[in-house]
Amino acid sequence: MQGLIDGFRRFRENYFEEKRELFSALATGGQAPKVLLIGCCDSRVDPTTIFCSQPGDLFVLRNVANLVPPYAPDSGHHGTSAAVEFAVRNLEVKHIVVLGHAGCGGVKALLDQQASEGSDFISGWMEIARTARDRALALTLSAGQPIESARRMCEHETVAISMANLMTFPWVRERVQDGRLAVHGLYFDLEDGALFRLDPGTNAFQRV
Ligand SMILES: [Zn+2]
Q: How many Å apart are CA 94 and CA 183, to the nearest integer?
């Protein structure tokens, strides 16, 4: 805990002082981010670090494996859907970016049933990506590919599934159709420091 306090003091003395005007404008004028970024909780994949963004730039939503569930307006506690709704309907963001990443623990749990056995919430949450697991395992194992190929394929698929599920939200679909909103897919490879973008034409990730 002391590390956090020390870190805050450094932030306060350096970063905050340097950007005092920005913080003041954000405090009085409110936030108006143009981008909703949906990423994984993974501590190694911090969107504001990766994209060198400033406070107020990104509305960040992080959960296990950067997943968006399908639109389901019922009495459940839909934390992810609520954040998507706030960003789209209240903040009117112009872009939604889904950011997947290499070495995702959520995807590992999805592929390795034992890893998520006994979990209260993780296996149920990862059900959102079950079709990805089935497809990746069928493709890679039948072709004699190592499990790493299935894992990477699944990590890519979490991005595609979230993008497809976003379109089940009527107010997302409506804005995408009339050009007010665009949905993008990215994938970050931590080891190489490489970023890939999902090309909707080929449905493949291209390095940027
Ligand atoms: Zn992850």
A: 9
